[in-house]
Amino acid sequence: MSAAVQSITASGGTGVIVDIECHLSNNLPQIVIVGFANRAVNEAKERIRGAFADSHIMLPRKRITVNLAPADIPKGDSGLDLAIAVSIMLAGGITEAARGVVPGHAVFIGELGLDGNTRAVRGIIGRLLSGRSKGVEAFYVPAANLRQAELVPNVTLYPVTNLRQLYDHLTGRHAILAIKTSAAGRHKSKRQDDSSASAVAAAPVTLSEIVGQARAKRALEIAAAGGHNVFFSGPPGTGKSMLAKALPSILPPLEREELLEVTHLHSLVSHDYEKIITARPFRSPHHSASHTAVIGGGLNLRPGEISLAHRGVLFFDELPEFGRQTLEALRQPLEDRVISVARAKDAAEYPANFILLATANPCPCGYYGTSGTCRCLPGQIVRYRQRLSGPILDRIDLYSDVGEIKHDGLLHQARDDKTDAAVRQHVIQARQAQRQRYGRYDKLNTDMTNADIKRFAQLGSGAEELLNQAARRLNISARAYMRSVKVARTVADLESSDTITVAHLSEALAYRAPIFAP
Length: 518
Prior knowledge:
By secondary structure, the chain is an alpha/beta fold. The chain is built from 21 helices and 19 strands. A 5-stranded parallel sheet has the order 12-15-18-11-19. A 4-stranded mixed sheet has the order 1-2-4-3. A 4-stranded mixed sheet has the order 5-8-9-10, sandwiched between helices.
């Protein structure tokens, strides 16, 4: 006897539908799994034996051959356990009533424990989205994955707690209550409303806590509004890291679609599979982190830090201390907002749309050009600055010095013309203007193409002439030229101006000149 059901395995962060075929033959009782399965999948036969026994379901005393098709795609996760178990039940006639209903209309996802209980699996959101795009009508998922699964719109979910419950459902004894998500997902509105507060609470520092540094704070406001990359340079102890950690406090809350993307990416690497990410990510890898940890990849492909910072902030403290290979790998995500990871056995493309915020000292000891005593030799300073290539620096939009602070004001409450709430509100208003302009929630001024710039820049009288003069004087590249217009467009949006004036462009150009050129 033979039977087949479907499941979805994670492959490169997305889902691949797998047809699970089961054939029973008269031979010595054993379970054989074929179809390019790794050890985690092959060990499913022992989990299934235990699950059937503890669930008081008779396992057919025959040779059970399970084929995972297509056989040329590697299968490497335990989320196929539930589907394999169902295929065995169907082939053995245990759930005869389910024949004709399950195949082709539903997929089964979940890992089985020896006691028959289901366990959560990685990447449930990506699996559901992939299955939905291929016409799958219903999904049987572990009950532990339900919170994340409910985020996916327009799907029918059957939460499975254990194998016995699924057996009773398929035999018509006790039906599992189906959950249908709406077009916006079944994510509760209160949870979405709370994401605004969560985004602020997640920031360890707020702008109002930082004394002085008005120029750097303004750069953060522009970066938050338009999604621009920022570079801070200054001696140690002047607040560069504090400024970076304050950026999440002025970012708007995640949109529903962004929340779905971020939660899925984090579930691929986190041990807390069912966690829902409500605040914008802030990732700060140490400069000793490996290239694979930052970019992504590994034996089993996983997103790296740049993808975990998707829709949030990627903070590189002491940028010159990072490896040259890692820094040069940032070129693609800074331009295309994705990272392609290719390995001998597999390849994947992960989203990587983040705000890059980098800091550096002016020299190895940190005190060159300050009131402190610099102990570096000229050659050391040159080599330190040459660690950053021109193409990487050219992709950074806002440069700002972070100068020394007078000590007598550190113990007093910081005084600023704008409160944190006011800055955040200006950022939200600027992003709303961009949404209306581009007709998309996920496109900011930093994402403008050359065609978009020509259409939406709207340079006022004298602005283009000023830009051309500055380009010749600063000797900036064509990329930096266009990026200056993007920053000016954001400055204009913060001022609720439809036209880019000379003042807007002058402010953008003031942040353009690299202060850390090699």
